[in-house]
Amino acid sequence: MRFVSFQVDDYSSYGILRGEEIVDLGGHFNREIPTLKDLLAQDKWLELARQHETATADYRVSDVFLLPVITQPQLIACVGHNYEEHRVETQRDPTEHPSIFFRHPESLQAAGKALLRPIESTQLDYEGELAIVIGKPGRRISEADAWSHVAGVSCFNDSSVRDWQHHTRQFGPGKNFAKTGGFGPALVTLDELPEDLVLELWTRVNGQVVQNATTDYMIFPIPRLIAYISTFITLQPGDVIVTGTPGGVGVKRNPPLWLKPGDEVSVEISWVGSLNNRVEQEQ
Predict the structure, then answer these.
(1) Helix, strand or coil, per DSSP, at residue 134
(2) Which CATH superfamily is domain 76-281 in?
(3) Residue 81 DSSP class
């Protein structure tokens, strides 16, 4: 199944995405389960949703504004240098443990809406990534059990404001400018994915492929990431883990390829979908 969060006028909700139609689950649950994150926190949440899978659609995608898949995640944990090509191009030493940093929900932007180049910088860079969303809480989750804690996956553009990222060795400032991180369009459950869970990712800028890799080239696979992060924090439904970007980022090109107003950025992942955003200058 595929789920989206959306807004119509002053009404915010979430629902099942069927092609170009949306079944409004927030409405079907009489607002007692008001957000997708709240749905994921329910026992047997997928079975609850499936009760309305064949219901008459309430909206067409063209009638709504999409929101970030999870609108207010408690945790957005991002992984740095998790593909060997990217580790090499950034001249980072190999490590035994993943590099983790965090985003704030204010930094998220929905599919189809503008990524904002902040007024403080012209060094906005793309980073296409696979995001996973937690569906079952857990602490010290084993790698063997890790996938059972995943509700589904989505596309993510972990855009970076590079000069602010490089002020120090801490990534936080360059990763948290408002509306720089694209997230969406949909949460795709694992039963929609191939059995081996290997996906291919492409990032395009104005139609040109600038990144391409398959997820089996991650240095630290998803079960390892879940086990590692859940060792020091309890993962909750709706938490997001952004799993790292392949090589080809703009900052390491010659000359650098910075995103500028008017650029169209796409993060496409096989079986998952395509996250499309236009770049605009923050006013």
Answers:
(1) strand
(2) Fumarylacetoacetase-like, C-terminal domain (3.90.850.10)
(3) S
